Amino acid sequence: MPRQITAFSNPLVKRIRGLREKRHRKEERMFLAEGLRILTEAREAGRLPRYVFFAAESAHHRLVQELVDAVEKAGGEAIETDRDILHKLSGKDNPQAVVGVYDEFATGLDAVDRDRAGIWLVAQSLRDPGNLGTILRTGDAVGAGGLILIDDCVDPFSVEAVRASMGALFTQQIAHARWPDFLAWLRAGPGQLVGMSLDTDVDYQAPHYAAPTFILVGNEAQGLPDDYAAQCDLLVKMPMLGKADSLNAAVATAVMAYEVLNQRRRSQG
Amino acid sequence: MPRQITAFSNPLVKRIRGLREKRHRKEERMFLAEGLRILTEAREAGRLPRYVFFAAESAHHRLVQELVDAVEKAGGEAIETDRDILHKLSGKDNPQAVVGVYDEFATGLDAVDRDRAGIWLVAQSLRDPGNLGTILRTGDAVGAGGLILIDDCVDPFSVEAVRASMGALFTQQIAHARWPDFLAWLRAGPGQLVGMSLDTDVDYQAPHYAAPTFILVGNEAQGLPDDYAAQCDLLVKMPMLGKADSLNAAVATAVMAYEVLNQRRRSQG
Questions:
Q1: Residues A104-124: pLDDT tens digits?
Q2: What domains are there in chain A, each with its CATH number?
Q3: Which residues form the RNA 2-O ribose methyltransferase substrate binding domain (chains A, B) (predicted)?
């Protein structure tokens, strides 16, 4: 039976609201996700929140009821609340009717089973949470296994990244590693490391990509460090006809990931 | 000879700072762009700011000097200032050393010469300024002619959109139209209108695209309205293998635009 909270001063509300800050997320090892669509996708992927807050007026929505039942059955807590509290939790002027609080996932490389998928995305020092979430969403679409974050990336559990991922945070595996540890792990098994770089003449449509393909994108402003690029099996570049000679990191990753997917589709066809 | 401004209360600083709000941009018909790289690309594309603010410590940078000279020669004004003022103008904690204030461009469809490019991007009710800027940047990369905004889109001259475009705002043509006016203009000349939709079984790699191709992307949350989709020459869909069955709007546009570009590259090869 859901309890009700409508007081701003409620300690749980204060604690959950704090999860919008990285420091508190790391202390609590929990993060926020908003919206019935994303929470339902998480549920379908086998992830249930520890806490779910929902607006009283959406209590009779079938998916909300199913979610609340599932959370309570799993030992979590469902909390009926109002728009003001949801606004306070989400920080959005127009808050979603449902907010979930999830335990952070483990992000060790040791949990990554590379044979599970033919495409893996790898991002180095990615700074923008929107880009990170968008790359997760693309990974979901192309059937990638997950996203491996190298060095100091933005937190994948930040509210902005979770939001931009549109639920893919729950379907994609997330790992985090320093570059030398990633390389050692990668070279201990099969895998082609393909770096996207402006310092190459190899057109991204020229190579035949071998599975599992690890698509590596560098930092938004700097691109890949030279010594990282030197360790790749291949460096490739999209054609760029314009003045700017660069693409958004999430866009470049997607164009590249669809090329690999299209090659696989042709070879199966 | 640049004048110096270091007082927050300076009326020009207050006025320029106001351009971060749409209301003031529309009144003044001017907008902000930040960063030497973007301002230099604008200059190379033939666009000079009416005002250029630069940090005193970057006054001896060659590109800053060239920019200042060009602005003054063209009758604009160069203003030497400090980091605090630049922070105030840009709203960023770590402001760029140069901020330019440009006259808004005309955005009528009548200025669009469709024969100038084989790809045009069209976005309907796009809401996110980052997506809009990213689509402009992609347009620059694929050699598109420009971006046509349909119905109520986010302002392409917002600080966030200009930033995300990485200078492509100055190399891509921007037009704005209501849907019926766009359709009337489109049908008065050659052009294939290709809508991206989830409600089709046509794989985006199946058709042969005819130039000029107009790639139409819908609102981030709603996609294209059904009656807009019905007016397209073709509806296509990217394969999506995951749970979410959707892509970020800027990502979908880029994957589609590169498919058209790749077809053109093959037919020329």
A1: 998 999 999 999 999 999 999
A2: 3-103 (3.30.1330.30), 109-268 (3.40.1280.10)
A3: 32-108
